[in-house]
Structures are given as C-alpha cells and as structure tokens.
Amino acid sequence: MKVLVTGADGFVGSHLLRALRGRGETVSACGGPGGPNGVEITDVAAVSAQVADARPDAVIHLAGISSVARSHAHASDTVAVNVVGAVNLLDAVREHAPRARVLLIGSGEEYGKIPAGRRASESDPLSPLSPYAASKVAVEVIARQAMDAYGLDVILVRPFNHLGPGQAPHFVIPSFAQQLLHIARGEQPPVVSVGDLSPVRDFTHVLDVVDAYLLLLGRGNRGEAYNVCSGEGLSIQGALDKLQKLAGTKAEIRVEPERLRPAEIPWLVGDPTRTERLGWSRRRSIDRALSDILDSLGEPPFGQSSESSSTR
C-alpha cells in the first residue's frame, strides 16, 4: 500500500513513518516547509503536486498547528494552516487519488468541557474552547461535506493527549521533563515553572496512538469518528509528581502567569470503546511514556540504558 503522510517530520509523524516502513508499506513523507520533502500545506499548487506525485492508496494527515496555547496567541495562523491545509489536501485527493482512504487527525479538545468523571464519546456534541479545537471541528465539517458531495473515504480521528520521545518542549509534560533534567544535572535552581496543574487529562503513549492510526487505516468505517485515548484521567499535577519520582528530584513548584491559558478545560477524558471494538488497546502505561520522555532527553539519572524501552 502506498501511504502519504503529511506532517511526517513532527512528533507523531516520525514514529508513524517507522511503523509504516516496518510493515513494508511504500511511504511518501511530506514534512513542513523548509525541511526535506517539505510542503507548505496552505499552498494549493504544492499540495496538489505532492498528492499527484504520490498517487497514494491512503493519506494520514498530521500536518498542522497542534498547540492549544499557541492557537490562543495566533488564532488566524492556526485557522489558516489547519483548516485551509485540510481543504487543500482533500481537494488534491479528490483530483488525483479519489479512492484513497484519508485519516484526518483531529483532537479530543473538540469536545470542550464535559462533566467531571464522565468520558467523552464520539456521539457527544462538539464545543471547542480554543482556536485550535475550533479549527479541528471546522475540518470535520468540511470533511463530511467532501464525503457527501464527492464520495471521499474519510475517517475522523480524535486523539486525546499523547506522550513520548520527540515531543516539542513547549508542550506541558516535555517542558516539565526538560526542567527536571536541568535540575538533576545542577544546571538550574530546583524550581519548576508551571501553569495550572489542576486540569485532568487522558494520556496515551504515542506508540499506542500510532497503533490506533494503523488499525483505523485498515478497519475504520468511512465517515465515522474515533476517539484514541486511554479512558483514564490523570491531573497535570499527578503527571508532574510521577516525573519528579522518576527523575529523583524534589523541586519547588512555581506558577508562572504566562503559562496560564485564557480558557482551560478542567476535565477531559475520552471513551475509547468504539476504537477498542475494532481490536485496539493501550499496551503502554503512562509511567512508561513519562520514563521514555526522560530517557530520550538525556543520560542517567533518568534511564538505565536504551534497552529499558526495548518493547518499542
């Protein structure tokens, strides 16, 4: 199978490429502008040429702005990249690869606020609270129009928070891990700068997320939405406590106002039942994900050796 991956040079993309190639798939990797095989996703002609050249059997669309915090500061850029980019891709698929299956990667953030203790299911209304989440909802609306009007084969994927090696340090958990690394090495005072630690999130190891994408590529139903999540909640404070234990640090916690979001979701946990019914299950724990992040950032005290993650 020929698979085109946009955003191939990103956090999930790098892991996904390895998994696809490990399965023997023919992969066309489309990264961001300026890099190898880079394409500006908002450039109609460039996206069309990429799809025309690849003639894929399947497309996994990862390209876009993925930071909720950045979307509040740069709303117009977020909409331009995420929405216009998806439109360009769907138009190119319609013209050059109309039978290709397309996985559009959305977000659990699309659900917005849900009652504490309740898990969001795919049938719940979408109520985005950030420009990022709103852009993902808009993409789903556009995708459904493309399916109805042009018969495209699209699957809507809503991953919740995912963690693992290679995630950019401006995301909350890698930011904590990087600070703890510097503290453990004596490179900064024993103080961790944080935002709001009270929100509860649903964390999944990035490799389990990749497994879900590959499963949905083969078994997902056209037009369906699928949550990719653990179904379990952990507060940001709890994740930081786990990191401190793994890193062997006892740093002071300091809230920095610039790290607080204009609108925060107190509880965001998903229901993975629909995806699990297709045969997917989480195989890696949150502790494993946190340990893998620490291991990827530096030498001991964090990881014993590269063999500690041999089940990757």
What are the salient characteristics of this protein?
312 residues; alpha/beta; Rossmann fold; UDP-galactose 4-epimerase, domain 1; 2 domains; six-stranded parallel beta sheet; three-stranded mixed beta sheet; 40% helix; 15% strand; disordered C terminus
Lay out the secondary structure.
Layout: E1 2-6, H1 11-22, E2 26-30, H2 44-54, E3 58-61, H3 68-73, H4 75-96, E4 101-105, H5 131-150, E5 153-159, E6 162-163, H6 172-184, E7 191-194, E8 200-201, E9 204-205, H7 206-219, E10 225-228, E11 234-235, H8 236-247, E12 252-255, E13 267-268, H9 273-276, H10 286-297
Instruction: Please mark out the parts with pLDDT under 50 across 5 or more consecutive residues, or reply none.
Output: 299-312
| Biggest sheet: strand arrangement | 2-1-3-4-5-10
Gyration radius from CA atoms, angstroms: 19 Å
Q: Can you tell me the CATH class of the largest domain?
A: Alpha Beta
Percentage beta strand: 15-25%
Globally, the shape reads globular
CATH homology group of the largest domain = NAD(P)-binding Rossmann-like Domain
CATH topology of the largest domain: Rossmann fold
Structural class: alpha/beta
> What is the helical fraction, as a range of percent?
40-55%
Averaged pLDDT: 92
CATH architecture of the largest domain: 3-Layer(aba) Sandwich
Task: Let me know the number of strands.
Answer: 13
Largest sheet: 6 strands, parallel
Provide the number of structural domains: 2
What separation lies between the terminal Cα atoms? 23 Å
Count of helices? 10
Task: List the secondary-structure elements in sequence, H or E.
Answer: EHEHEHHEHEEHEEEHEEHEEHH
